[in-house]
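Repro:
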Amino acid sequence: MNARKKLGIIGGMGSRAGALFLNKVVDYSPALTDQEFIEIIFHNNSAIPDRTKAVIYNGESPMRAIYNSLDMFNQQKVDAIAMTCMTVHYYYDEISAYAHAKVLNPLKLMAGEIREEYPGVQRVGILAGTGAINSGMYHKALAGTKVDIVTLAPEDQESLFMRCLFMKNGFKSAVISDEARALMHEALNRLKSLGVDLVIGGCTEVAIGVDQSSAGVPYLDALDLLAKKAVEYCYDAESLKNPAYVH
């Protein structure tokens, strides 16, 4: 196997999503031994302030805490950086300018995936945080795909999706309740009822609450796609084609 790139992961947004992403990178890696995995520096930076509050409610900026992670990665000379929160990519240009490494952008990756794998899709439902939706991040990223973007009604966005994230024992918690899981699925069902051809799991916690195989609609998970593309970037293309590495 040829030289592999070193990956830096900024987690803690939330911690379960970051841990799930790390596991996905391991799962997708074309490694047969310990030594064939990529080197990964994982920073569970739980000090990063809430991104939705920062983006749409003028709350504390997450950038100071993110710079702490980037300083570590710059010092350790990582080659690629992945951030396990979609809303934080609102600050992508600022983060990319500060980082010495390539910062992977899941919004651009999703646009490319839709163009290549879902060319006939017309209505795309976005299940994501209010900050990501209200800031227009997804609308801007997917503009070139010519799809119509569908989101939950504002009351459903807050009472179902955002509530399942931030309620007691929600998806941001150490212990996730059955009620939170039921709210997540109700949010998904409400979005599906709007006549979408594809649903994007556009918040990293969606990857915890929604099983791709039972989504009941063509489904593209942002965290899963980011993990796959991180592996592709960190390994050379030839090693990924080796039949011995096929999962």
